[in-house]
Amino acid sequence: MNPTMAKAAIQKLAKKLGADIRDHSPMTNIVGEQQTDGVVLAVVTLADGTQIRGQQCIVTAGPWTNKVLKRSDGDNFKLQPIATFGTCWKCKQELHSQNTFPVFIKYGYPEVYGLPMMDPQDVVKICRYDGPVVRTPDSGARMRLRLRESTCKTTLQRTSRTSTRVHPTKWTTACTA
């Protein structure tokens, strides 16, 4: 799946249903506002002062979520983001299909998961899910660069010796750097 095309398709459908899409619109505040009929609306204030009200508010701020949802009374969410890293590997075409290359998850250290990609074809995305804790949102970018320096091949080799949930020879031999 092409993420850019998927996002565009979802936005197009959302607009047809009445959604107001505002890309690159920094927000300064989100609060709940009690209405006279008892309904609570989410009120989002943008940096330009515009206020948007709705019955639902979906926050997709990644490591900035704690900052976005910070409450003045100190009763805040306790979210702890971690840095993750994924790579795409080209596979032998005859080994890449829904029947021969299923989604897999390897629990324990290191945590690894993988899934076949549909666009581009014959590619598998393999991700580690054991990254370092992101202390501040801006530190996440630096951590991702450090994670890239460690090769996924090492992770795959280490995983193939320790995994009992995955048939390692199917995916370690199918993938090439």
UniProtKB/TrEMBL annotation:
Residues 3-129 form the FAD dependent oxidoreductase domain. It holds the Pfam family DAO. This is Unnamed protein product. Its cofactor is FAD. It comes from the Eukaryota. Coiled coil: none annotated. It comes from Phytophthora fragariaefolia. Belongs to the MSOX/MTOX family. GO terms for molecular function: flavin adenine dinucleotide binding; sarcosine oxidase activity. The keyword Ribonucleoprotein does not apply. Gene3D superfamilies: D-Amino Acid Oxidase, subunit A, domain 2, FAD/NAD(P)-binding domain. Keywords: FAD, Flavoprotein, Oxidoreductase.
